[in-house]
Amino acid sequence: MVQGVSLSTLATCGKSRLCGSSPSWMAPFEPFKRSQITSATGKQLVWNHSVQRLFLIGYPYVSRHSGFKAEAAWMFRGGEQRSDASSEHSESANEDILMFFFQLDLATRVQYALNMEQYDIAQQLRNKLTEVEEEVIKQQQSKRGLSSKSEAQDKALSIIRLRSDLQNAVENEDYALAAELRDKISKLEAESLAASAKALAHENAQYAFRLGQKVKHKKFGYKAVICGMDPVCGESSSWMENAQVNKLSRGSTQPFYQVLVDVHAEPNLLVAYVPEENLVIPDKPDIGRFDHPYLSFLFYGMDSAGDFIPIKQLREKYNRPRHEIPIDPPNDEDGGKA
Length: 338
Hints:
- This is F-box only protein 21.
- Residues 206-310 form the Hemimethylated DNA-binding domain.
- This protein is an alpha+beta fold.
- Among the domains are: 148-204; 213-318, no CATH class.
- Helices cover 50% and strands 9% of the residues.
- It has 13 helices and 7 strands.
- Helix 8 (146-171) packs antiparallel against helix 9.
- The longest helix has 29 residues, at 175-203.
- The chain starts with 33 loop residues before the first helix and ends with a helix.
- The relative contact order is 0.11.
């Protein structure tokens, strides 16, 4: 799947070195601590330094086109954003994709170490992979509303206990405490309702687009490929304000998509987080050129309709079925001929 590019640059070896291609990865290995995975400092280590090497060294297109390196460098340095389309750039979406790459690479390394009978290294890698998978599962549960459902249930239990306390306060004529408990109950009821609504939205989500599908942005006109999806906007309030989500006709409760943007159309963007209402399918199949440094990691290649075929692990991540291209039925008139 990763022909021509090594994801090994996304792993970290002992003494804070970045691993290169084998055999240098067999150096003493220190599994990430959970704090390194979740903290801003840890993310900076994994995302910033590792990904710069991945694209500026490993990716052939970037290596051969020095101009592109300068255009794309803002993603790593926080440089100037010169296009209105940059309002939909999402660093969290980009990090989500990179975590997925990291997960794939670790799984490949574990198998490679086992094949080479490097069992100690395989165990260290497997431990690290387990830490990453736990973090990924936690993030996926949050996005899919499972944590919201659990949160709603916890709040419902808290409300039951508070109502019992409220009844006791009224019976004891402690009206000040009763008033305080009523305020707490009202607040919890509102929070529980919001959590339940979020969980329900995730469970009943319907997507207009599928993984690997080529789309076009209604407003900015660039071509893109779907590589991830959320049933509602999963970004921060500051991101939504910057992207003017409140001005969308369907608001933040519609599906949002992680898309890979054609580097020829928007070299400063790379990964965008776009609401469903801002995307359309091309009028006719587009089998033309589409370049992006993530393509070879997330897709097997292009199908006959011009869309990309997602790898199995990507489909499993979003629990999406395989897309089968319909075969045109034989012409009746031709079929009737001898």
